C-alpha cells in the first residue's frame, strides 16, 4: 500500500478547512498545511489535524506556494486539495481502495472535479485534474495564477471525484495579480492568456476578454478541447455585448473542432426560440440531448446543456406547437433533474390538466 502526503496552501479558510480535512483524515498519512498569511483561525484549525503548519510569505505566485508545500512532503505520493474541496463518503472510500491497490509504477493519478453546481444541487461543470503524484518525480507547479501541475510518465485516470464547495464570493485578487504581471512586462504563457481572459470575462470586461481569448485561439499549442471551451466563452461575451451575429459566428466556429457540443446546440436553439421559430429551436434542443459525451475524458463537460435545460426548452417548443404529449414528456424529464423547480412543476401541472380530457377518452 502506498503512503500519501496531503499538501495544501491556505489563507483565511476557517469556514471550510475543517470540513476538507475531516473528509481526508483517514486517507492522508501526513498533512502539510502551508499558510500564506491568515488573520483568522485557519492555523489553529489546521493544528488540530497536523503539526506541519508552515508559514510562507505570499509573493503573488500560487505555483511558488504549491511547490513549497510539495517540498515539505515525505510520503510516497502527494495529494493536493483546496480548502473548499471535499471528498464525499463514496469517493473517500474509492480513494482508500485506490491507496491500497495502486500499482507503484503509476506516476500520477487524475480525478474528476465537480467544480460548479446549480441551486438544486446538480453538477453544472466538471473537469479532470491531476490530483495525486509520485513525490520522487519532483513534479513542479507552473503559473502565478490558476497554476497547473506539469506531469509526464504513467498516468492513471481514476473514478474518484473531488467536490468543490465554495462558500466565499470570488474576489478580484487574481485579476489584480495578472494586471500587475502585465505592468511588469511579464510575457504570458498560453495558459496565462486563457485564464486572464476568463478573469476579465468574470468581471464583465467583455471586450477586453475577447481580445485575450482571440490571442489564445491563434497559438499553435492550443488543443481542440481548449478551443471549443473558449468558443463558448467568446460566444457568451458577444451575447452580453449584444453582438448576436458574432455570437452566431463563434458558435458555428466550434463545429470546426468536433461534432456540435450540447452547449452550442442550446445556444442555437435559444436563437431560434427568440425568433419564435419553434420547429428549428426544437431541432437544436433535441440534438443537444442526443449528442454523446465527449470521447476525451479531459473535456470540460457542461451538464445543464445535456440534461434539464434542453428538456425544459423542448417542453416549451412542443407546447407552442400544440404537441402537448411531447411537451409533458420533456417537462417531466426536466423535473427529474430539478424536482424543486417551481416553473417546471407548474408546466407539468398545466400539461396534466390539458391532457386529462384526452386521457379520459
UniProtKB/TrEMBL annotation:
Report the superkingdom from the record.
Answer: Bacteria
Alphabetized InterPro entries for the sequence = Glyco_trans_2-like (IPR001173), Nucleotide-diphossugar_trans (IPR029044), TPR-like_helical_dom_sf (IPR011990)
- Membrane-spanning segments: none
Against Gene3D superfamilies, the record matches this protein to: Spore Coat Polysaccharide Biosynthesis Protein SpsA, Chain A, Tetratricopeptide repeat domain
Q: Ranges for the Glycosyltransferase 2-like domain?
A: 5-124
What name goes with this protein? Glycosyltransferase family 2 protein
Q: Where does this protein come from, organism-wise? A: Paenibacillus gyeongsangnamensis
Amino acid at each position: 500500500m502506498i503512503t500519501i502526503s496531503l499538501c495544501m496552501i491556505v489563507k483565511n479558510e476557517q469556514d471550510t478547512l475543517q470540513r476538507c480535512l475531516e473528509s481526508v483524515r483517514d486517507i492522508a498519512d501526513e498533512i502539510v498545511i502551508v499558510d500564506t498569511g491568515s488573520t483568522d483561525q485557519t492555523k489553529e484549525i489546521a493544528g488540530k489535524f497536523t503539526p506541519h503548519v508552515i508559514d510562507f510569505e505570499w509573493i503573488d505566485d500560487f505555483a511558488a506556494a504549491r511547490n513549497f508545500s510539495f517540498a515539505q512532503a515525505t510520503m510516497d505520493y502527494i495529494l493536493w486539495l483546496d480548502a473548499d474541496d471535499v471528498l464525499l463518503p463514496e469517493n473517500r472510500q474509492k480513494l482508500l481502495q485506490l491507496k491500497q491497490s495502486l500499482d507503484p509504477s503509476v506516476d500520477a493519478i487524475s480525478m474528476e472535479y465537480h467544480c460548479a453546481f446549480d441551486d438544486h444541487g446538480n453538477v453544472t461543470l466538471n473537469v479532470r485534474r491531476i490530483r495525486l503524484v509520485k513525490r520522487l518525480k519532483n513534479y513542479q507547479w507552473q503559473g502565478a495564477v490558476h497554476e497547473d501541475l506539469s506531469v509526464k510518465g504513467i498516468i492513471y485516470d481514476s473514478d474518484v471525484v473531488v467536490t468543490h464547495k465554495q462558500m466565499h464570493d470570488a474576489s478580484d485578487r487574481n485579476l489584480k495579480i495578472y494586471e500587475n504581471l502585465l505592468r511588469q512586462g511579464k510575457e504570458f504563457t498560453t495558459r496565462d492568456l486563457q485564464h486572464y481572459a476568463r478573469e476579465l470575462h468574470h468581471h464583465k470586461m467583455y471586450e477586453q476578454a475577447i481580445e485575450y481569448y482571440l490571442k489564445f485561439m491563434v497559438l499553435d499549442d492550443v488543443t481542440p478541447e481548449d478551443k471549443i471551451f473558449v468558443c463558448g466563452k467568446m460566444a457568451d461575451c458577444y451575447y452580453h455585448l449584444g453582438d448576436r451575429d458574432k455570437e452566431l459566428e463563434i458558435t458555428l466556429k466550434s463545429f470546426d473542432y468536433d461534432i456540435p457540443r450540447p452547449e452550442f446546440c442550446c445556444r442555437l436553439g435559444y436563437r431560434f426560440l427568440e425568433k419564435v421559430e419553434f420547429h428549428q429551436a426544437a431541432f437544436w434542443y433535441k440534438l443537444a440531448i442526443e449528442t454523446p459525451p465527449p470521447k476525451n475524458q479531459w473535456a470540460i463537460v457542461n451538464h445543464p446543456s445535456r440534461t434539464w435545460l434542453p428538456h425544459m426548452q423542448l417542453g416549451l417548443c412542443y407546447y407552442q406547437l400544440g404537441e402537448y404529449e411531447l411537451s409533458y414528456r420533456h417537462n417531466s424529464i426536466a423535473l427529474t433533474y430539478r424536482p424543486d423547480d417551481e416553473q417546471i412543476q407548474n408546466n407539468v401541472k398545466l400539461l396534466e390538466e390539458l391532457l386529462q380530457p384526452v386521457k379520459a377518452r
